[in-house]
Each structure stands twice: as structure tokens, then as C-alpha cells.
Amino acid sequence: MTTLKLKAVGNSTGVILPKEILSKLRVEKGDELYVVETPDGITLTPYDPEVEQQMVAARKIMKKRRGVLRELAK
Questions:
Q1: I need a surface site. Which of 7, 47, 68, 73 has the fewest CB within 10 A?
Q2: DSSP-assigned letters across all residues of the chain
């Protein structure tokens, strides 16, 4: 478990993420993180949750219409 300390950043409060966490998130300085509220708490993710929902829907359609998509690809 990693403990993070909140620090003053101008008139705001920030947290410094260690290199190990940045590496696991596959992000670096300047990238954006999304804060997602879940039943288990808060999740930080580099992936836009709206795009993820769209991808889930697209995968369902592609699976259902696999034959049609194969024909269109010919």
C-alpha cells in the first residue's frame, strides 16, 4: 500500500504521484487523469469513461454483427 500526502499548490491542494504509480497508470507529466466515482470509492484512470462505455457498446455490436462486418470488409 502506498500512502500519498496532500500538499498546497497555490490556492489548491495537490498530491504527488510516485514514479511507480505513474508507470502502472501508463501516464507521464502533462497527461490527463479522469476521476471516476465507483461504489468502492474513487478511481484514477487515464481512460475516458465515456469512451469506454462507447467501446463496450461497439464490441457488442461487432460480436452480434460479425458476419455482416466480414462481408463489408471483403
A1: 73
A2: -----EEEETTEEEEPPPHHHHHHHT--TT---EEEEETTEEEEESS-HHHHHHHHHHHHHHHHTHHHHHHHH-
Bridge partners of 9, per DSSP, are 12
Range of the structural domain that residue 26 is part of = 6-73
- In a domain, residue 34? The reply is yes
* 1 part of a folded domain: no
pTM for the complete prediction? 0.60
Rounded Cα distance, 11 and 46, in Å: 25
Quick: pLDDT tens for 25-40. Answer: 999 999 999 998 999 9
